[in-house]
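S.,

As promised, the phosphoric acid mono(formamide)ester run. Input:
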Amino acid sequence: MLNKNLIDLEALSVTQIDKLIRKARKIMQSPADYRHACDGKILATLFYEPSTRTQMSFQTAMLKLGGRTIGFDNPMNSSVAKGESLKDTVSVISGYADIIAMRHPIEGTAMAASLYSQVPLINCGDGGHLHPTQTLTDIVTLSCEKGRLDHMKIGVCGDLLNGRTVHSLIKTLAKYEGNSFVLISTKKLGVPLYIIDILEKNGCPYEISHNLAEAITDLDVLYMTRIQRERFLSEAEYEAQKYVFVLDREKLDRAREDMIILHPLPRVNEITVDIDDDPRALYFKQAQYGMFGRMALILLLLQDEDFMIKERETELSEHCCDNPKCITQSEPYLPHLSYRKLGMQMCGFCDKRIN
Ligand code: CP
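Predicted complex:
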């Protein structure tokens, strides 16, 4: 089955990703050509969780394409505060808007919402699970700044367990030839096992490191991330993990001159501010590339009939997902969707193994 929902960047082929990047670069070169591309169209931004970049870059993207925006950035100011279900909210809004961009703190929400949307729905982050348009931002940046998406040694550093941007990025770049990863984190905050499975399935070399100063020396890209305070069960657990990895001048001096530093932002002390003026520090420019990537995505979803996204083949399962962070736990009407992967039954919403 094909559809127009972007839940996971993994659903896109390399050809489709390249098409998105080409479109973003064309928009960057001549933005005036696209000023009326979405005249009369409405984007709804449904943000159940805080955001600066993703929400505002989507809104700016639609405004720059000539369209308009509706939405909320605090669900407590909507009927969600009265107990409205995800299903009902999405069913109603998809009758108002032409396209929906949604962020939610619970894993699998975008997939769940897409079941009830009549219009294209874009995952802008679902709990610690995925953040595909951040990855779109990252790969547009890599394409423009490194000139390629392959044959790179990429260091990812910080909260690799909860950092959804890292999961989406690794899944995407593992598809490109010659890439390898250095996974830099504490033992507690390493990538989930399913990401290791993906690296191994793709034959993508990876190393695990607990030392940023050592790992930084031969990287093409260093992708820093913050420790995701909001995903910890207790403040004490967060306190034990924060500030373990800080990129400062001393460490950066050990890196190559052509290494670039990316960060999805927001930053919370994991990069010292004196590095911001270093030509290798591209995180603010990266946020701007994201807006062009999102303009390209809106255009292809709304206007390119050939740009169809492959839906994962799921089946109805007897067993429900037991991941306490999965949307199936809080929206009980959802069907028990699952799929098989590597001989295991996986939840069709949060991608965790069903036991
Ligand atoms: N990178 C990112 O998702 O930033 P926001 O949380 O500000 O949207």
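The longest helix spans residues 283-303. Residues 63 and 144 are 24 Å apart (CA to CA).

- D.
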